[in-house]
């Protein structure tokens, strides 16, 4: 389906999707929301932060089967099934040793279909329905009865060339997408994409947690490797900073416009160089206390911001997740298995050292995300509504949802306005959900704008302009894409 | 009035209750909400957690007077009057020594009636209006002018057999109700109910705070008593655990399907048996520090969960209340006098020890409640949306209200779905408010579901199914009633 | 424009303001909201807490120019411009040394006009649009194109007598306004207002932070000065308390009905007199630790409350702002430059010492404000809904906005009702925004009340009564004005 027809398809007779979904119920507001949406629904997708696999675009192989496309890799999906007693093994989730207890995609799909009611009211349900219909043309409801039929339908599609990654990328009308790679990554898939001559714009992002966090598995070895890759004496403080600069330049060569940092807290520090160096040496010896490790991570955010002043990378801070909360699942299945839980996160004291150092820099963009919605109105909007260098990332992860996005706008706009926000991030590894997620964001934002107009808080002509900004322009501008 | 007529009565000419109350204003949504509600409004009441007095059902005596039914025992009511300067003495609230300064129900009722405007906008007002009209057929507004007339009307009703507890229980269409008793209770009222041959299903719940909390008044003496009742050597660690098992079995004999724990925090621990034993011995000597007492309480939640794996009792955690905040009122009037104040409560780190121990058990049900709404979306929904053993209790106490329930659904559904929640708890000692509270919950849930349908987030046939689940089936299933 | 015509003007053809702004979109609710609003829109303004300059009313000089009226002194406005890279110097914000880099009002105004889109969706935009139209009769949109024309229009108005402070005060229909002065202020402007014979009711409020906070700049010198002004031996504990009593009486002579306290936290203490005296002596020597300073501030709130029992001043607590967060801006521009950021604030444990001491006093009014909306439903409403002495201040500062006020009502009413709240505070130094702010509050409250009626939670006749209470009566009563 050509991009310009994505919205149209919703109005076909067989569609299961309400063409006015996520618009307010009241008629005047709904009518305006729809009018706003119609001006942005076909805009290209800017996806400045996400986790799709660059190998897909590099190799352009067919996706293996419906279960491995929609269930096994999507922690939103398998954790919900797990929460009602389905075992991760039965869903074919890979164990820590790499083995999979169930490899029959059809069996996995049947469990998913039988339990599809669990997703009622969740964004996963909206993304799945949207993907099934828009990507695969499947318009029946998923259930035990339609399990095999839907599996066969999608599996058949996947064998066809128009369902290969690059074809979908083009059909999704993605103007630019960022993947995320470790600082130690050789970016070979990005090299292969470039070498292939394919025109799709896939850029990387610099994710240095493995060489910034003293508590990361194998930190010292990672620094050794960093030194080798960069050709710098990375075990000295000066060499370590130089190695970062080198890697950032390398990532920039592959289109990177941002770095990304997933620390447990939003803590920043601005230590003296000698203090930082001492902590770094301690970290290399594995001798940092938890407090010292936290201070070092915090200081490195300020170092990253200083490097951003030179090389222009946007600095993204994604704090506040208690990773791998489930001890037994961590042991048996490893990291990232749906048990990352948000925690209370403070920004006011945490960001002060970084902001005191570089917060007034007009050329710098620090984008802060949160998993603690209480910080939107109380901390993040007042900070972003004052410091030139600070912007607010969109509603993130558990809040990448209709209610989450609505609360984000309601809580941040009055203090930070629209122009201290940066448009939408899909932040996903679920490739087929990308158009669905952007569609949800565009609908929710248009609903919000329509409400402002109808309640006399925004002029109608302004709403059309802001709708375009939120759907397209701000992401492109903030991420320099 | 027969249960099937409760909803009908709202449409009589003389009713003061808006038949569409709590439904969204917009017509299409309201129409659907009403249609949903009409399929659940007459369903039997499952009341799996509450504080009605089993003696009422055992003795089936008339309630003494309107003030002692509606005011004196209801902390929602008398604390609001107190907040505007009415003294607890003038309301006949019993003092710590058992005396009551005012015993004239009519005088108390007049104060209440003169101050009825204070309840505008509160759920108490909705419950009272509903009770007056549906239970007593009183349809005028309560005010200074109608104080005596309303008092006489209700007092007259109370003399009649159809207003005795069992008759009301049947009229309210209660299929099952749980009371809550201390682990040390002999359950004689439950025995008397059983002996009477009455068919009403009244079950108990196991509340062991007095023998689990080292800071509870008379902890050591309570353990002595626990030993006597259970016939176990309860002052040894092994005997103590055996005594719990014995009492749980006894409570199960009287229908208990749950235990309930009202700790200051949600802290859990999973200590070694020798560590737990050492703390227990210290607690018996009254030698625990505050930190040690907290750790012991936390550990006992995990022990309770392990016992639940054997005996099937559902484990309810009700944390986060700062009890008896008002020093002078505690001194003069004792506990539970409307000055229990919610506090910030953490769940992520607090529940980890218990969840690491038993969180993946499919046969276990741990139901977590909160008085800190910030934890809904940030902590509880992500936890319950992943761990098989964890479910979310409904909006509780101060949030047992239209806005509170709406916020609960909006904050939890997107991450935890509907099926990690457990239906409604009325959690009340105000007997006449029970139908009103369930009616509010059913209306608010139907309003929420209608909104999801009208905004394209749920199919209409699904909404009807979920409405039934939330009003009836989930409570019955989750509490095994 | 005469006050009674303020609302009318919105309906003229040339008005840019939606006459139904802030009312719900649904027709029945909107119609009722409008009906409610029409009964309160022309009520006199009670402004019991604010920061207008008494010198304006004393001297009654013309305001200098549009930029110095609307931009330079308004931290809401200049911090938003700053957040998008406009320098404070270019806006003529005074530096710490008193100098202003830009003094050309027209140049400043052009920057403001070019960036007017930044205010989309913010309350500042509503206040500005309302002020421009209602106060100055300017009905075009502010933009780069209209920058000079609007500047000239407003500048011209300012030369005319009907735009002098007293004329505006009368046109705004202000029945009473409170300013805020330091305990050390001689109140000469208030004296001059009184001496002038002008009938406008301008009262002061007692703000003793400079002589209560051991960490305040020049604390010991301030105490010296306090002693001189009051004629008490203020460096002794007894003399210090006597000096406060003396100053409070002096402020009462100039109409004060309240004291106001802007501490970092809501902490209160009720120390013994000897403990308090020891801390005081330490504070005079500059020897208090941060913890001791905090304890002393906390104790002084309880002392102020005790004095209030004698002299009847209402005690206002405004905690939770991290003042002057931006180090470089504090150094270059000084305090109050838009970088005060809210922080998490606890009330339950913090207020207990004060409430244990005086919370049951019916004659006392303690009004608590918050910058942490999570405390509304969890802490403040339960406390105010129980303690006779405690009331809730309205949505404050960043929350003096449509969404902020709506969240305040939704979060507090169900537990505290309407009558434990105190009407609206504009809390502003932006004189022309006063009618706009009260108008927003009246509209939002009427919208909320209309919603309650349409959803069956409040009777229509009650809504009209409550609308009047919230717009006028409660502020007058709570602040004894």
From TrEMBL, chains A, B, C:
<dbReference type="GO" id="GO:0042840">
    <property type="term" value="P:D-glucuronate catabolic process"/>
</dbReference>
<dbReference type="GO" id="GO:0019698">
    <property type="term" value="P:D-galacturonate catabolic process"/>
</dbReference>
<protein>
    <recommendedName>
        <fullName>Uronate isomerase</fullName>
        <ecNumber>5.3.1.12</ecNumber>
    </recommendedName>
</protein>
<dbReference type="InterPro" id="IPR032466">
    <property type="entry name" value="Metal_Hydrolase"/>
</dbReference>
<keyword id="KW-0413">Isomerase</keyword>
<dbReference type="Pfam" id="PF02614">
    <property type="entry name" value="UxaC"/>
</dbReference>
<dbReference type="InterPro" id="IPR003766">
    <property type="entry name" value="Uronate_isomerase"/>
</dbReference>
<comment type="pathway">
    <text>Carbohydrate metabolism; pentose and glucuronate interconversion.</text>
</comment>
<comment type="similarity">
    <text>Belongs to the metallo-dependent hydrolases superfamily. Uronate isomerase family.</text>
</comment>
<feature type="region of interest" description="Disordered">
    <location>
        <begin position="1"/>
        <end position="20"/>
    </location>
</feature>
<feature type="compositionally biased region" description="Polar residues">
    <location>
        <begin position="8"/>
        <end position="17"/>
    </location>
</feature>
<dbReference type="GO" id="GO:0008880">
    <property type="term" value="F:glucuronate isomerase activity"/>
</dbReference>
